[in-house]
Each structure stands twice: as C-alpha cells, then as structure tokens.
Specification:
two-stranded antiparallel ribbon; 7 strands; globular; about 40% helix; alpha/beta; 5-stranded parallel beta sheet
Length: about 240
Amino acid sequence: MNKQYFSEIHRILQTVEETQAEAMDQLSARMAEAIRAHRNLYVFGCSHAGILAEELFYRTGGLAVINPILAPGLTLGVRPVTMTTQIERLEGYGRTIVQSAGVGEGDVLIVHSVSGRNPVPVEAALEARERGAFTAALTNVAYSQSVSSRASCGKRLYEVCDCVINNCGSVGDSVCEIPGLPEKVAASSTAVGAAILNAVVADTVERLVSAGVVPPVFLSANLEGGDAHNARILEQYAGNIKYM
C-alpha cells in the first residue's frame, strides 16, 4: 500500500489544527448565533467542491438546519461533467444562485472553492455579504495566491469573505508524487475539508448546548427511535430547512 497519501493527510490536518483554530471558532460562533436567532445556514461549492455541501446536510450527527445550495449545472451529476468547468466561470450566475436560495440578513453562507479564482463562488460570496449574511470561505490560500482571479471584480474568494479557513493543501490540490510521473496524484481538499467542517459542526453544537439550547442534530435513521427523533426536528425547524 502506498502510505504517502495517509502521511500527507495527517500532515495537512496537523497544520490545520495548529493554524486554523481561530477562523474555525469564528465560523462556529456565527453558526450557533444564527441557529439561536432562527436564521439560516447554507453551504455551496462548484463541482467537486460541492461534495462538502452534500456532506453536511441530512446526515447522522449533522445539524438539520444546514442547507446545501446545489445549483443547476454545478453538481457532478451533470453530463457532460466538463460543463461544470465552464459554468463556474459564468459571470452573474453566482449572484443569481444566492438570490434564488433566499440568503438574507443574519444568515451564514459557507463557500468552498479550492482555487477561489472563478466568478461563481466569488460572486456568490459578494452577493451574500451585500444581503447581510456572514460569509465563510473554505479555500486553499497558497493555491489561490498563485493564480489570478477570473472574476471581473479581480478578487479571489479569500479576499471577499468575512472569515477564511485555509485547507492548508498544496498548490494544485494533489499531494502524492509518483516516481516517473510528472503530475502529482490524489487530491486532499475533500478529505481535509470534510474534517474541517465536521469539526466546525461539533463546535457549533457544543456552543448551543453550553447556551442551554437543544441543538437540532440528526440521529441515524437505522437506530431505534431515529425516525421519530428526526421527524420531530424536521417539524420543529421546518422554517429553517430548505431541502425538504
């Protein structure tokens, strides 16, 4: 077994733990505040970055009130999938996505983009901020700083958000070097990003419990009593759940 990938993921996670705690705490605090105020939580990404939007919603141990924004043309179900590369470069679409999702004052929007250079994620964050939402970027700062923005505003994602969480990955995202092959293989952003955001969810829940709030956390539907528990949460927080 090639152990290089595990070694690199361990290294990156250690770097994240050592350097990103403040930004992660900032995001979890705002998420807890939004839940207590009955505001809405959203997460968005294009193509593979959107996998983390799917990771966070309607799942065991997750917060029921996290809403994915799965915009037409930007999920991996699109065929041909190469369309996603072109669509995330469309000027104006990011603003339309956020407007259509209903992001508003006091809400929280997490935008995941590894390079942070394309118009759709940048414009999504800008539109959300203009509408009074708190915006958090999950991005690769070194990668983003190595490339120019494709957005007409000339900004990259980390330059337009209220909070920036660096996934601490490599430029280009792939981390494994294979002798005889010029390209690196095996991307780190999904594995590391999932760890970051699940840790943020756990911290958000801890903050709610400390404040005396019963957090809207899903149980596995395969546990006894899971269906009834989840049905109660879905009913109680129906106004903040947009995916049903």
